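User: what does the whole thing look like in 3D?
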Amino acid sequence: MIQITALPAFTDNYIWLLQDHSTQRCAVVDPGDAAPVQAWLAAHPGWVLSDILITHHHHDHVGGVERLKKATDATVYGPASESIPGRDVALKDHDRISVLGWEFDVIQVPGHTLGHIAFYHQGHLFCGDTLFAAGCGRLFEGTPEQMHHSLSRLAALPADTLVYCTHEYTLSNLKFAAAVEPGNPDTAARLEKVTAQREAGIMTLPSTLALEKLTNPFLRVDETSVKEKVDERNGTQNRAPSAVFAALRAWKDKF
Ligand code: ZN
Ligand code: FE
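Assistant: Here's the predicted 3D structure for the full assembly of 255 residues, as structure tokens:
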């Protein structure tokens, strides 16, 4: 039995903490800062940090790795094609790793960065800055076509999959989603719920793929409502899903 909780970092990052209570070993995903992890370890004597999973090379995801490695014997897993400090195991698409007794599939998801990977284990997806709750990562290195393909791969996972992304961007993402689909009742309901959660200081993650498919415009580029909105704004017609995606991403960048 693995328990998953979030350690907040910086202003809107979450470092996911996986705890195996049978062995008192734990793992973290994308520790951009070592301090919250070290504070947790100090407050929980007996627990050992055994593994560090990294999705991509951005500082807010890898900034704490070297300090944590010095302080523990943790093994660092990260994408093979990016420069990851302290990486012990270089991962590529379709690799499999075992962490705390869980088998994770590695899914290459280029777009936000070119080497970005996601980790999937039976209903649990750690996807870094690729799929966000109600949104997706910015295209710093990849093309819209790459990101669209990456999101399609994630969307093909089971609907009840829990989505553990790295940032608390849900509210601003939903405001954009509501602008894209003003007539989507699921988006309106989620915006209302998330607004209340954020006012109360409650985190909005993890999400589920089922909810993302209903409310995340970047997973809904095949929907008539989304296509028509993009056509209406850009004066285009009948665009391919990846072109609809590209137009949405460009709109969101300026929203
Ligand atoms: Zn990033
Ligand atoms: Fe990030």
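In plain terms: Residues 56, 58, 112, 129 surround zinc ion (ligand 1) (CB under 6 Å). Residues 133 and 170 are 5 Å apart (CA to CA).
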